[in-house]
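User: Can you fold this complex?
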Amino acid sequence: MYGFSGTVVGIRCKDGVALASDSKGVAYYHVLSKRVKKVFKLEDRIGAAIAGSPGDVQAFVNLLRAEANLYRIHHDRPITPRALAHLASNILHGRRIFPYLLEGMIGGMDQAGPVLVFLDPVGGKLEEKEFAAAGTGASVAYGALEKDFKERMSVSEGAKLAARSIKSAIERDAATGERTVVAVVDAQGYRELSDAEVQKLLK
Amino acid sequence: MAFVPPGAGYDRAITVFSPDGKLFQVQYAQEAVKKGLTALGIKVKEGVVLAAEKRLRSKLVEKTSIEKIFQIDEHIGAAASGLIADARVLIDQARIEAQINRLRYDEPISVQTLARRIGDIKQLYTQHGGVRPFGVRLLIGGVDSDGSPKLFETDPSGVVAAYKSQAIGGGAQTVVEFLEKEYSEDLSLNDTIQLAVEALSRVVERPLDAKKLEMAVIPVETGKFRKLGESEIAEYAQRVEGKPARSAKE
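Assistant: Here's the predicted assembly.
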């Protein structure tokens, strides 16, 4: 599929969710960009990591942000990660025959704690208790995740594992590459880590 | 041109502003509600109670087919006063809106969102050509997913307001005056049901009995709408009939 590239991962930890991605954008053998954004803030306490065709990813994220803002105004409270993931699933399934070329995950905090939901291109919605990976290098990332995931990890440990699993995908998937990007969502909200912080995680 | 009396023509067919800023069709719709039987809603910490006056036109009518209180979703109900035919159409739409919310977000609709949706529909019917406003007020009560009880009123113009307690229909003023004196948000649910029956007893033809009342509760504990059965209502009604009427004291 044109421009479908990159790897994203999400890890559900005891106190938050860690999201990570690479930053490469390719179409066949052509590198479109080395700085493609694949991790996004959707609400104060909700983030998304989405791999796919950049145009589709951006349009989809803009739509979800607008829906989250409208929900906040209409309901006098922020949307929950599960409700937003449900809505995202509806939007994707609504385009079943001419789909958004993307897959990824929505992660965030609700009243009870961290939530991670995987989404496939046609609206399949799978709530994950541990972790998820999507994109061209998902299988490579899953290898790292399966090996090192531990129950009741803190979000800082999760961020480290997320960064390392992306690093593996960068090493062994041709359509995944360049920078490792990490974001965490916890009780304090959504935060993207600086390059220096990410480098520390990868050491 | 022939002489036209001032103010004429502004109360016909479509809703058009009169020169002094009135929408007569909407005002007439408000009047239609005043001809309706009384209904009330009371919100307390333990939940919401809805009650409505019922009058059976004939001994041969099936009692359960005369409805003034409707379930909208698992956690929301509404009491209507005015043109009940209009109410039924709005209730059908409200039920659809509740299901749309569940489909869209996988969440039960909040009472406020639902009340606003109904308000939106009513407002549309004050602005479009070829239609008339809804001649009905609705009291919408329910318990939100966070466990907080809510009560809203919508009027024929589309205004939506939240209440601790409110009455609509012909006896509204009498009932509201009574509720203003007796209301407390700390009442137990049972006491609130009793208060609702007492409030309606001031406008319902005596002697009071279960056939003249329709009631529903949405307790915070369960978050589920429940209609009261005839025998249950009869117990509360008997207690009101049993004790000397309050108005006699005054």
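The helical segments of chain B are 24-34, 84-105, 111-124, 172-182, 189-201, 230-242, 246-249. The longest helix of chain B spans residues 84-105.
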